[in-house]
Amino acid sequence: MIRSMTTTTALAVCLAAPLAAQETHTWGEKNADFEPAFENQTRAELVQSDLTFEYRQIAEGLEHPWAVAELPDGAGLLVTERPGRLVHVTLEGEVSDPISGLPEIFNQSAGNSTQAGLLDVKLGPDFAEDRMVYFTYAKGMGDGMSVTAAGRGVLSDDMTELTEVEDIFVQTPPSPAAMHYGSRIVFDGNGHAFVTTGEHFTDEERQKAQGLDNTYGKVVRINLDGSIPEDNPFVGQDGAEDSIWSYGHRNIQGAAMRGDQLFTVEHGPAGGDEINIPQAGLNYGWPVVSYGVRYDGEPIGTGKAQAEGMAEPAYYWDPVIAPGDMIFYEGDMMSEWQGDSLVTGLVAPGVVRLEWDGDRVSAEERLFTEYGRVRDIEELSDGSLVLATDYEDGGLVHVTVAGAD
Ligand SMILES: [Ca+2]
Questions:
Q1: For residue 19, is pLDDT > 80?
Q2: What's the CA-to-centroid distance between 284 and ligand 1, angstroms?
Q3: What is the CATH number of the domain that holds 284?
Q4: Residue 21 — pLDDT band, cuts 50, 70, 90?
């Protein structure tokens, strides 16, 4: 069954980008008054690509699409909708009925904000052989309590159901606060998965980001079946969760591998979004230090941005961009971007491109700003991009370079 054919007309319209480059970005007013620890840790030089883009709306009417994963052999896309649906979308815009077999998804709101739901989806590293699909989600634990979890299941050939579904990670302990779930899952190419979490936001819950006896505000590292790699940094340490890779994070909604190195992008408070390059066993500082301040302008933790024993972010934004996800671009279509990261923005509209010099950012560009809240970005096998716009009536946008095949 096809849920929406509204895109058939949109498909016929191929909107060319304005010939002029996008409007020039200027830095906004800072929320906080900290000095960076090193040059280009924030506000790197603003640049503009000399590319002309074409945009095609693939699908509309998706409810807060959160993640997009390309299937092999032109078989289209798997897309999560945050309320709890996993759907198949063709590149022509046909949206399937929800794929069955997911666990029950917790999608309650907290105040006027809904952050819980079905979050990431990725094809497993051996998908061609085992059709294993991995996902992250908010899991209800009873009495309104919830956690972040990661699961996996086998996608049927007709893409209508997941079978053999199991959890491979369940955050502990259950939280009464339905906020800050993270979460992405990425693979290191060496048999492990990294799962990112959040710290459930409240003043009380966030303190757990510094504790090793829980998995709030952590990057965790697991084997693909959910077992714990023996070389994880806290294996064998009394009172520490063996799954922890790094800690002191706030709300990590984006993650990507560059070679065998994990990069994460996390939501900070006002003025403190961070890119980190998480190393085994290190403390990334939240909520003791931050380059941001509380939303009411009051200080965070010690009121300082830096502390001995707490790792510096590789990059931070003040004002924030509210990062959704990030990729490292590898394709030929936008070949001058190879090795750059593309970070989606929810508050800063569109996508932020970062150029890197080793582990340091060297330049920044703002792209695709007319699309507003962008939750996810996927590079397709031909080097084109798909953006997922995060609205109640959200959709997918296919971005190509004018004149590219
Ligand atoms: Ca930090």
A1: no
A2: 4
A3: 2.120.10.30
A4: very low
Residue 351 within any structural domain of the chain: no
Which residues, at least 6 apart from 230, have a Cβ–Cβ distance to it below 8 Å?
Answer: none
CA separation for the pair 330, 340 (Å, rounded): 8
In this structure, is the dihedral angle defined by the CA atoms of residues 5, 11, 12 and 18, taken in order, positive or negative?
Answer: positive
% of the chain exceeding 90 in pLDDT: 92
Question: Residue 370 falls within a domain, yes or no?
Answer: no
Contact 351, 342 (CB under 8 A): yes
The active-site residue, picked from 64, 88, 180, 267, is: 180
Catalytic residue status for 267: no
All residues with CB under 5 Å from ion ligand 1: 284-285
Residue 269 DSSP code: S
Q: Residue 332: which pLDDT band, with cuts at 50, 70 and 90?
A: very high
In a domain, 340, yes or no: no
Q: What is the pLDDT of residues 68-127, one digit of tens each?
A: 999 999 999 999 999 999 999 999 999 999 999 999 999 999 988 999 999 999 999 999
C-alpha pair distances (Å), 169 with each of 118, 134, 216, 217: 15, 11, 13, 14
Q: Using CA atoms, how far apart are residues 213 and 208, in angstroms rounded to an integer?
A: 8
Range of the domain at 221: 7-18+49-328+375-401
Report CA(198)–ligand 1 centroid distance (Å). Answer: 13
20 — pLDDT class (breaks 50, 70, 90): very low
Distance of CA 400 from the midpoint of ligand 1 (Å): 35
In this structure, is residue 360 part of a structural domain?
A: no
Distance (Å) from CA 103 to ligand 1 centroid: 32
Burial class (CB in 10 A: 0-12, 13-18, 19+), 366: buried
Cα of 294 from ligand 1 centre, angstroms: 14
Mean of per-residue pLDDT scores for the chain:
94
Stretch 35-56: mean pLDDT, rounded? 97
**How many domains does the chain contain in total?**
1
Spell out the residues 6+ positions from residue 98 whose beta carbon is closer than 8 angstroms to its own. Answer: 85, 86, 87
Give the pLDDT score at 10.
Answer: 37
Q: What angle do CA 326, 384, 85 make, to 5 degrees?
A: 60
d(CA 289, CA 283) in angstroms, rounded, equals 11
